[in-house]
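for the recovery benchmark. tokens below, seq after
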């Protein structure tokens, strides 16, 4: 770690970023609760909740887990993992739907 990273200005900047991310996460939690009170169809409610949760998870991973300053290799591995996760979810959905069709 370089000596420049320990200056009071740099620390204040990082604290401001962490507080802004925290406030954003709190607001998105309030939005999630607000959306849950709406009478949406189950599919739409789940889609909206997953979208908000994805934004919140991205904020946590980028700022609190310090992935925002990582190299492209980390993001490549993360993207590939997410892609294969979605493939597996769609495979499971495709096979379970066919079981319930009469």
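predicted aa per position
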């Amino acid at each position: 770690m370089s000596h420049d990273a320990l200056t009071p200005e740099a620390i204040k900047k990082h604290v401001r970023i962490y507080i802004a991310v925290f406030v954003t996460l709190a607001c998105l939690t309030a939005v999630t609760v607000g959306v849950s009170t709406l009478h949406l169809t189950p599919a739409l409610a789940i889609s909206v909740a997953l979208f908000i949760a994805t934004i919140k998870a991205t904020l946590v991973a980028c700022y609190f887990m310090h992935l925002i300053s990582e190299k492209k290799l980390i993001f490549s591995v993360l993207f590939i993992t997410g892609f294969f996760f979605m493939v597996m979810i769609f495979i499971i959905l495709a096979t379970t739907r066919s079981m319930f069709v009469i």
